[in-house]
Amino acid sequence: MSDDPETARQIAELARDERPLLVLDVDEVVLEFVQPFIGFLRSHGLDLKTDSFRLHGNVFDRDTNEALANERVSTLIEDFFFVQADWQVAPAGAVEAVAAIAEKAEIVMLTAMPHQHRATRRMLLDRLGFPYPLVTTETAKGPAIRQLRGEHPRPVAFVDDIARNLVSVQETVADAHLFHLMAHKGLRALMPPLPEGITFVDDWHDAAPKITVALGI
Question: φ, ψ for residue 168 (rounded to 5)?
Answer without folding.
Answer: -60, -40
